[in-house]
Automatic annotation (TrEMBL):
Coiled coil: none annotated. The keyword Nucleotide-binding applies. The keyword Transferase applies. Residues 154-189 form the Adenylate kinase active site lid domain. HAMAP family: Adenylate_kinase_Adk. This is Adenylate kinase active site lid domain-containing protein. Gene3D superfamilies: P-loop containing nucleotide triphosphate hydrolases. GO terms for molecular function: AMP kinase activity; ATP binding. Transmembrane segments: none annotated. The lineage of its organism: Eukaryota, Sar, Alveolata, Ciliophora, Intramacronucleata. Keywords: Kinase, Nucleotide-binding, Transferase. Belongs to the adenylate kinase family.
Length: 244
């Protein structure tokens, strides 16, 4: 058992309290759907913490693989640098392996996957083998013309996944994470040129999964162009509905 020396008692008690609260909330598997800059990265860490779900962001997972120089990372790097979608076979295994972690027992929060209706069907098959399914698919609706400003101003704290924006949601200290005091980064692919290619891919390949989940009667949409607090309110109304 890992030593608890160095942990503050109040932090440990707060974590126990958080997990107790999580146990009173519905276990569920959730898919977040939306273009780059739609706000998924801002909301996902909050949803993860409040519902004690396992947040699987394929973008972050692939970036980690690239940084680690794994075989998967090397294959994905050139594709990601061009702003194109990573092929299914490089992603399915990543999700499957990650979902076996104990922290995923209460459910998955998927951000950036599935990106196509084919991936959605493969995800369903994978979850069916585990005796579960996707319970909710949430679309973040944003007009294309405001996404460039959102993406170019985005700053990220890689260890936690917390995101900021230099204009709409700035950190208390420039380029410093509010919680840890660690440095924020601007991702290399957060620029207008890459965004335009990613938006083309999103509309051509990802949008059809909206119909896929609509046919299953689990798709709900939110207006992600509102202020963060209003987006949060819309999400909570969906998240805390009972699962049929």
């Amino acid at each position: 058992m890992a030593s608890l020396r160095g942990f503050r008692l109040e932090d440990l008690l707060a974590e126990v309290h958080r997990r107790q609260l999580c146990s009173t909330k519905p276990s569920q598997n959730i898919v977040l759907i939306g273009p780059p800059g739609s706000g998924k990265g801002t909301q996902a860490p909050r949803i993860r913490d409040e519902l004690c779900l396992c947040h699987l962001s394929t973008g972050d997972m692939l970036r980690d693989a690239v940084e680690a120089g794994t075989e998967l990372g090397k294959k994905a790097k050139a594709i990601m640098d061009r702003g194109e979608l990573v092929p299914d076979e490089l992603v399915i295994g990543l999700i499957d392996n990650a979902s076996k972690s104990p922290e995923c027992d209460r459910g998955l929060l998927l951000d950036g996957f599935p990106r196509t209706d084919v991936q959605a069907a493969k995800l369903d098959n994978m979850l069916k083998e585990k005796g579960t399914t996707i319970h909710k698919a949430i679309e973040f609706k944003v007009n294309d013309d405001i996404l460039i400003e959102r993406v170019e101003g985005r700053r990220v704290h890689p260890p936690s996944g917390r995101t900021y924006h230099v204009k709409f949601n700035p950190p208390k200290v420039d380029m410093i994470d509010d919680v840890t005091g660690e440095a924020l980064i601007q991702r290399k692919d957060d620029n207008a040129e890459v965004l335009k290619r990613r938006m083309t891919a999103y509309h051509n390949q990802t949008a059809p999964i909206l119909q896929y989940y609509q046919q299953r009667s689990i798709l709900q949409s939110i207006d992600a162009m509102q202020k963060i607090g209003q987006v949060t309110q819309q999400l909570d109304e969906i998240l805390y509905k009972s699962i049929v």
